[in-house]
Amino acid sequence: MIQRLWAVLRKEFAHILRDPRTLLVVLAMPLAQLLLMANAVSLDVHSTPIAVVDLDHSPASRAFIRELSSSFFRMTEAPRTTVHLDRLFRGGAIDGIVVIPQHFERDLVSRPAVPVQVLVDGSDANTATLVTGFVNAVAERFSLRGAPGSGPPIALTTRLLYNPEGNTLFFIVPGLAGLILTLVSTLLTSLALVREKESGTLEQILVSPLSPLEIILGKVGPYFVLALADGLLILAAAVTLYQLPIRGSLPLLLVLMLPFVLAYLALGLLISSGVATQTAAVLVSLGGTMLPNLILSNLIFPIASMPRPLQLASLIVPGRYFLDIIRGVVIKGVGISDLIPQTVFLCAFSAVMLVISIKSFRERLG
Amino acid sequence: MTAPRKGLLALVAMIRKEFRQLRRNPTNLRFMLVMPVVQVLMMGFAMTMQVRHVPTLLVDLDQSAVSRNVLAEFRNGPLFDIQGTAYSLDRLRSEFDSGRVALAVVLPDHFERDLRRHRTPRVQLVLDGVNGNEAEIAAGYASAILAAAVAPYGHPGGLHRVTVAPRAAFNPNLHSRYYYIPGMVTLAVMFLTVAMAAMSIVRERERGTYDQLMVTPLPRSAFILGKLIPFAILALVAQTLALTMAVLVFQIPIRGSLWLFFFFTLIFQLSSLGLGLVMSAASQTQQQAMFLAWFFLVVVMMLSGFFAPIDNAPRIIEWISRADPMRYYIAASREILIKGSGLAVLWPEAVILLGFGVVLLTAGTLLVQKRSG
């Protein structure tokens, strides 16, 4: 058994090594993707350009502007005319306009609440949400500081655990690592088996004395190694390029990566036994893994804000649990005791997937 | 028969063969048409940055009537999901470590007494900072609730609040789908024309049917066009389906001209099909073609401003993105569908897309011909 398995493994490795172009693609592209994605998906509000129109020109309004600029935003020079302002805004040169009303200072003393207007470009709703959310945070901070002469009722301090600077790369980079790993794992196996099917060589292997289990393990094994190598490469890149701190235990992360990668390799196997052509394999793999892992995994969009059916659907997306794990270990520095539900799910999921895929492989081809 | 007429007949025959092949594989066909619709549905519902239901722990170290009242304010509305109330700081860190809570509101000892004597009690907001943006926004909401709740205890006329009155142009309710769906319906075109076209040509090569086609009197250009046109048509159909879904389910306003939108799809397809040709010329196996296509799709998608406005990206990335045809296509789609802009505004995009199309399609055709020649 071991000997025969070894033979299949060697054959598959030889296949991979004989095709250096694919090998290069599989190892180099995830890195390139990480680089581009992390920079292109910029969620960083610190560089968001906003303009302030100060209609009051008082010490209070200037203090408010100072608070705004020292906190989050890149302030652009306030345009002189409304027409100019409108052009900048429509052209996308600024993402938001904050208007401090006339008598801002006077009203702060005489009225309980003074509205500051924020104008955002709603066609980019996410930036708009971020900008209004952040201006709101600044306004609240400013309010709680209180007007001169009358102390504020409470002093509020805000502490960001794990990431005091609010560095958005800490959030996005581990997530991307998980996403890329998913895609590589699924595509690799689904294509490898379907290729043999399409070219008719699978029948030849099936009539050999190899058992289906040996074929599958031999097929999946090399890609398992390859996917893990990818995982390591991505992590190394994240640490060197983005100064991602690995606060928890790296061995723990690698161990927890195993069931995750295995789950997707098994999914790839299942896809490959169900479809006849490589085109179909690609379609199903991308549709079945890319989309859920992009959207239902907390990668960028908070699951908690989604409608209930999508929240429920997200419960069976392995990426969701893996992102908990990778963010937990890398950024929070937590150990296995805080990640037990996630680990249990991933192990169970990969076991079930493996059993189903081996079964369906046997039924269809055995 | 004249030569051009013969060429045209050959082309029609080739297109019919391709469509027959597509039809013979209904799973593929269904997937190609249904996937964009599913994507539009999922993304329309899911892709929002709004912060809601933040899992929150209330920490009441004072246990007074006032502290209870202040904390009770957090239970109203959809912003915070209260996970419980703690009376000490012992387990605070571990609640964050396990991810059970993302925000803790800590009211100190003697909160009520200090508040009544105007001694400014120190209230703390502790947040899970892994997602920094979400944390800042949640902190803003929490401070607003706190400020309102403690206002009655301030000096007479003491607390002067600055409130924010947001106004969003073009999209008053800040639906993020207005941003994503125009991108989403363009992505379907991109995927079908680049990946599927590339793989379909390489498949003929992998199976050896390519050589058979080459020895028939079929002109090369008819072969290439015959391969590309079915996918271009398919992409248009898929896009129309997805767009219909977006209008029906999400009431996406189509403020501009639909004809103009489809015109942009057509000129964008020149570039994407050209890209597909280049990839098919560069690969020997479908696996290679797939990985190439996948890589370029992701890069092209990321640089196009699909997820986040590319203007916010670092300057060098912004420069690279100017070589991404999809960037202009997505920008035009958003302008047309959401803002209702016309060709008077969008002619630069149209010219650039046509330029890209001519260059990529020519390059792709030459490369494929060179390979087979």
Strand content range of chain B: 5-15%
Strand order of the largest sheet of chain A: 2-1-3-4
What pair of chains forms the biggest interface? A-B, 118 and 119 residues
What's the Cα radius of gyration of chain B?
Answer: 29 Å
Low-confidence runs of chain B: none
Q: Please, how many helices of chain A? A: 14
Calculate the terminal CA-CA distance of chain A, rounded to whole Å.
Answer: 18 Å
Sequence of strands across the biggest β-sheet of chain B: 2-1-3-4
Distance separating the two termini of chain B: 26 Å
**How many domains in all of chain B?**
2
Account of the protein in words:
The complex is a heterodimer of chains A (366) and B (373). Chain A is of the alpha/beta class and 366 residues long. Chain A folds into two domains: 2-41 and 168-365, no CATH class; 45-145, 3-Layer(aba) Sandwich (abc type-2 transporter like fold), CATH 3.40.1710. Chain A contains 14 helices and five strands. Chain A has helices spanning 2-18, 20-40, 59-71, 82-90, 104-110, 125-145, 169-199, 201-207, 212-242, 250-274, 278-295, 308-314, 318-332, 340-365; strands at 49-54, 74-76, 96-100, 113-121, 155-161. Chain A has a four-stranded mixed beta sheet with strand order 2-1-3-4. In chain A, helix 1 packs across helix 9 (212-242) and helix 2 crosses helix 9. The radius of gyration of chain A is 27 Å and the shape is elongated. The model of chain A has no long low-confidence stretch (mean pLDDT 81). Chain B has 373 residues and is α/β, with parallel strands linked by helices. Chain B has 14 helices and five strands. In chain B, strands 2-1-3-4 form a four-stranded mixed beta sheet, with helices on one face. In chain B, strand 1 (54-60), helix 3 (65-72) and strand 2 (80-86) form a beta-alpha-beta unit. The radius of gyration of chain B is 29 Å and the shape is elongated. At the A-B interface, helix 2, strand 4, helix 6, strand 5 and helix 7 of A face helix 2, helix 4, strand 4, helix 6 and strand 5 of B.
